[in-house]
Amino acid sequence: MLRQISKLLFVASVVLVAIPSNAQQDPQAKPKPEDTEIWQPVPKVVTPAAECGQVPSDAIVLFNGKNVNEWVSVKDQSPATWDVHDGVMTVNKAGGSIETRRRFKDYQLHIEYKIPASITGSGQGRGNSGVFLASTGPGDDGYELQVLDGDNNPTYVNGMAGSIYKQSIPLANASRKPGVWQYYDVVWTAPTFNDDGSLKTPAYATVFFNGILVQNHFELKGQTLYIGKPFYKKYDTAPIKLQAHGDKSEPISFRNIWVRELP
Ligand code: MG
Q1: CA of 121 to the centre of ligand 1 (A)
Q2: Topology of the domain comprising 35-261
Q3: What per-residue string of b and e applies to 187-201 under the rule 16 or more CB within 10 Å gives b?
């Protein structure tokens, strides 16, 4: 019985292969515009921000200028203690790095920051912070988009503002001067992993820095390590982390942070 069925299936497939794909079409028929139109599924309606400083209709607001309720200490998950004032939040270096309570996979992120006009120090010690696109645990390095004063502040170029730390040099230096607000718009595609922990698909980052493309669908080599070669470690979803860097320069500030989760 099974043999007969498989024989039938084989014959049927031979017949199908033998029929040219355009056999049922009128060879005289010209392609129509409608042939290549797609009508479904209809993308959802999203109302864009009316102007800079506002938020698209489907965004999750991570900082609205009023409190740090969406954030916790990376160290012990206690409520974040960064200083909120005048609609901005300023790094509390003693309080350490903070991360979102929520966890994310793929997303679009908008975040604004300001290096204080009074900034001192040089190189990596001048306004160093970072947006960790995935914070994979206190013992991990995670995936850092560097924040640093980039205005006439020489340092290694794969560690300058707009770099994926020690992995990708930005395509341009789009830094503004200290004392002026700047922003990142990021598209983050999270890495995926097989059951055995091996990498299935790598992470990608596209970054606009003050509206200038600085990372164009860059394929990450793994976590962004301070020392050593990057490697991947399995995770599923992760918070977004903001770095309290140990340098001695004045703390920087953030405002208007929102994220749109991607399907
Ligand atoms: Mg940093």
Answers
A1: 14
A2: Jelly Rolls (2.60.120)
A3: bbbbbebeeeeeeee
